[in-house]
From TrEMBL, chains A, B, C, D:
CDD domains: CAP_ED. It comes from Bosea psychrotolerans. GO terms for molecular function: voltage-gated potassium channel activity. Residues 269-370 form the Cyclic nucleotide-binding domain. The lineage of its organism: Bacteria, Pseudomonadati, Pseudomonadota, Alphaproteobacteria, Hyphomicrobiales. This is Voltage-gated potassium channel. Keywords: Ion channel, Ion transport, Membrane, Potassium, Potassium channel, Potassium transport, Transmembrane, Transmembrane helix, Transport. It is a multi-pass membrane protein. It is found in: Membrane. GO terms for biological process: action potential. InterPro entries: cNMP-bd_dom, cNMP-bd_dom_sf, Ion_trans_dom, RmlC-like_jellyroll, VG_K_chnl.
Length: 387, 387, 387, 387
């Protein structure tokens, strides 16, 4: 192996450690847990440091901890940047371009901003209050480790135009409410509604239904305006909720479709099918939700069905011992005529859900219907099974 | 019958009494109503006992009631644990394993926690204020008796990752809002925004749109930060709503599909069909919503259609008297050519909805279309009808 | 005509006047508008009467108006009860049973309660404050005239179990929050959190995100409990919203399907098709949304397409003048081969939307695809067209 | 060219400049940006002018700016009115009728109202406070430039009946809550709940969950009423949210369908297909979401697939240089047997997403399935490709 190959191998290994912490690798898991813990400890430290009595007592400790953390975060940023060409997303680009593309991505920008206080500190501006915000930005580094965050941000990004329209409407309604209130109340409460900017403060707090109660109308006309504003606030609330709910529902459906598809394509027998044929198979899957502890396959019931785990975890009993399977795996055996499709050889003896799980089941009866309706597909599966 | 068989029969009987209270059995119904009443009485007693004047007056009564309740709840827990192997969910496990699995389920843990004060009381720690929380946990024992609770918790469990991501986002936004407010307001209101933890109290109350009004900004910059925070609060509100709405909608669809399927499979004539054929029949059902008191079948109109009750209650008139049918049952008669599918023999004479009901109707015209499009299915139904 | 027949005819006429106000009948329209105006005037009067200065000044007027209104409402109730056997919903029942069934319906109970103050007044209890609530119940008489109310109440009724489960969860969370707050704050603020009922007031106002600010925690532990409670409040808000949104979406889909179906069945040519064939036609309709003022059909473009109005209003130009069509009507002409399906004879020359409208369009190209895929349907339509 | 033709050409050119600012035309883009900037500057000026100290200092400047702005807006309104006959929406109407129809549209009415202060000012009523509202109405002129606004208003318009029913329910609940509160609290707090109008103020602020805290109950009965009202407030909130969410979801689905349809119809090869055939092609598209910077097509992979951009932006590499494509365009090459469908000639060498994008992909494998299942469609595409 040449030096360049060895170098690329190392870069690949480090990329896997630092970016695929959810797998089985012990180093990757430790690394990720360590970074998550460090981020949380940082945020707690920043919050506590703002309390004068605590800050005075542990002043040296806080500074040391901040300095060490900053060094680790800077190192993390450098390593991630260096390993960026290994990302599947940037494959095919030159290393320099891949790093540039990575540096422009949202998580990388957050990482960079989170290390900036180090630079400011070295430049002697470490006492600026505004640095607090940059330091707290570290919290969002957690986003990388949350599997649900990707769905949420994809949903929000998909409907950014509609959300912006909502914001424009909110601004417009706020302006109208504020000026109406200014007109009717500026004589009764000159210090609170004397100018439109003053009234805007009241309007935004009312439209968002926060309602602190530091400013409220006292005249009958003012109360009427406030009542209308409060009811409009309900609509202002309904618009983003409706948009986010819709976008999120679509995102979930897309995600589920992709998960199901890739599960089926992973079954060795179905792997040889083309996209249209996999879609046919998908339509014959039956959804089944099982609770934690539910027995999915009893001992001594061979050839019952094929089970695909859409979410959750199932423990199967194999001759060589127990094995836990999670999202994306399948198990069971499907006997049909002279064909048998099994997940393992020999087939597992029993299966128990070890978490609330959603399974997709392919029953012999459905498989029968599938092959009856698509004889060519059946022949093809038969041929693949005998191969 | 041997002693072991008799024992198993008893256990089965007690399981049916204690776990299937919605059926027709009088003992089971009484038992369930009694337990629900006891839980409610307990919660009321705990709340009243916290009022010093009432507690002083009925002190002995409260103590006696608490003691008796605890004994009953402990007994209930023991019986449920003993009867656990009869649960359909744990069938196929050994009795000991079934009990262990049951003891680890959420309702059993709530039951156990609800009886803990008895133990603490016996150990002499009965005066601890924290016991209040354990005692109030009894309220959640009601969850077992609410049919909608299962749907809700299934929906929440399905999207727990996304809800956790929401929570992480809420924490992040809260931290940023709090530190921004701390920076701009700590001079104007040192006692309220002097430290970040103080500002966090303001931030969380604003982001959740509660807005007590005990803390609010007074400077222009502070008001600008608060306005942005309040608007972000709308998004913080929209995210969980969107997620829960989506998850709940999916849960409902799944539930309805299962209910419909099992209703059709219960029709004697369709029971012999395979899964794919039942799915064909399902597509030809027409939904109909009727109000309380609506006449579904008039007297002297035989062979009109088959009605499946998806929800609600219908009273049918049979020669031997009236009979009430609820969710999951079917009635009516479908005459088609030389075939007749009837729910009862002879067919009911009339039917009136006794609650707002949702019916799925199989009309002769739809049945005709079904048999025309699937001649093999028609032949099969014909064969089954003549058998 | 015999007296009984004449009587039944009168009852039918009065039923049509009083229950079908949305039609073309002038008397029915006047009657309905008059009743809506009377209800609104009543509510305004009741609200104004509660202001002592106004009540003192117009005392006699208010009493007279109330008395006249009560007489009219009592008369309305009596007439509706008498005409109940004409309701399509109660057809097939004896008059006495139909009236009993009607009297037990929600609108009738509201009508009855709204007239009760008359009875109480005659009995000398007219001064009771509680009568205010009975009098204001009149407002809900408006529900009868709002077309959207039926959809809303159907949606709420469909998910009443889930909403009840929400309420149980809300109660449980409220109890836990209240007792937790009572434990941590009862020493700091004995007058506000000294008993659990006191703390419950705080808990419910926080969980619903109202947050008056009359009660709020002051200790650090109390603020932590309040923060958790406020976040739980977001979930408490998300649950009913998710349920109502889902239920309402289903209700809308059901309603739209029924509207579309009945529109197609009303086209003379399609009226002879059976249910399955109408469903085939439905799949070939293309949705089109037009703005107010949009030109749907230009002059001199015959045989363009058939347009069904799903919602909104369209003005068509016929040789005899202009005509406005609304929801449920269709217009246009579809020429295909030797067939021509026209809404009017001769076909309208032009069409302009006079409100934002949703149209379902059957194009010649789609009709071609329909007949190619279902040759039997095409033959049948051809036969019907030539008949 | 005659004078009339030249005139019509000018009108068309001005219509394109003033109404199609999103295109490539430099003048149109400048015009639109200028108008948006002017509107924003106007709103800021109006808000600032309400602050006495600022108004006094820059009095002349504000008046001059207002006057110039009004002139520009009046000119804009006149030009738009004059160019109205060029609108696609009013094609086929006479110029006078087109202008009348345009003048009655919502954006035109807003434009007119925004110019009214000019008229009032000329008539000497320029000092009226109410003019503030008319002047702030300018803000809504921005609606014309926001692409998401159309979706939102279409969604709201579609469910206006249900939203009105919500409003009626809100009014009814508010009336009942206010009178119940008036009954139980008017003795304890005569100045706050002494009359129903006073109590209505409390009721609306509680039901919308604003909760200022200026009025709240102090008696136990009053607190019970307030608790029920607050919980009802959650439902009042859930109703509009559910309605808006449903309406918006439907609007999005409709929009996406239309976008996809028109994209496929724009592929030269598919343009010759009829509606039913395009629908067939649509079913074989596979959705793919790519991040900013993702490489969609690598260099040297010809004939991979056809990509349709549903949203976002993609940069393709052509022999003549780079080119950015956005929503509605397609790129790539599909080789299948002896056929090749390409977006450009020669086919682009590489493609990189320059924004988070949603692509619809037509793979050779899916295209194969499509042609196998619809041999006539395949023949037709083959014929079109060779033409």
């Amino acid at each position: 192996m040449t030096a360049a190959a060895s170098f690329a191998t190392w870069r690949r290994q480090i990329h896997l450690w630092i970016d695929h912490g959810a797998g089985d690798d012990l180093i990757a898991t430790m690394l990720h847990r360590g970074l998550v813990a460090l981020i949380c400890a940082n945020v707690v430290a920043i919050v506590l440091e703002s309390v004068p009595s605590i800050a005075a007592r542990f002043s040296v400790g806080f500074q040391a901890f901040e300095f060490v953390s900053l060094l680790i975060f800077a190192l993390e940023y450098a390593i991630r940047l260096w390993a960026a060409p290994e990302h599947a997303r940037y494959r095919g680009l030159s290393p320099a371009r891949a790093r540039l593309a990575y540096a422009a991505s949202v998580p990388a920008v957050i990482d960079l901003l989170a290390t900036l206080p180090l630079l400011f500190g070295l430049m002697g501006f470490g006492e600026l209050k505004v640095l607090l915000l940059l330091r707290l930005l570290r919290f969002f580094k957690l986003g990388r480790y949350s599997p649900g965050m990707a769905s949420l941000s994809a949903a929000l990004a998909a409907e950014r135009k509609a959300l912006f329209a909502c914001f424009v409407i909110l601004m417009g309604v706020m302006l109208m409410a504020a000026s109406a209130m200014h007109i009717v109340e500026h004589e009764a409460q000159a210090e609170k509604f004397g100018t439109i900017p003053d009234a805007m403060w009241w309007a935004i707090i009312t439209l968002t239904t926060v309602g602190y109660g530091d400013v409220y109308p006292v005249t009958a006309a003012g109360k009427a305006v406030a009542a209308v504003t409060a009811v409009l606030g309900l609509i202002m609330l309904a618009l983003p909720v409706g948009i986010v709910a819709t976008a999120f529902a679509q995102e979930i459906h897309r995600r589920e479709f992709v998960v199901t598809w890739s599960m089926i394509a992973r079954v060795p027998l179905f792997g040889g099918l083309d996209a249209a044929e996999i879609a046919e198979v998908m339509q014959f899957l039956r959804a089944q939700t099982v609770r934690n502890g539910a027995v999915v396959m009893h001992e001594g019931e061979p050839g019952r069905a094929l089970y695909f785990i859409a979410s959750g975890e199932v423990e199967i009993l194999l001759p060589e011992g127990k094995k836990r399977l999670d999202e994306g795996h399948f198990f069971g055996e499907l006997r049909f005529g002279d064909m048998a499709i099994a997940s393992h050889s020999p087939c597992p003896n029993a299966a128990v859900a070890t978490a609330p799980s959603k399974l997709l089941v392919l029953d012999p009866v459905d498989f029968h219907a599938l092959t009856k309706r698509h004889p060519k597909l059946a022949e093809r599966i038969r041929a693949l099974a005998q191969a």
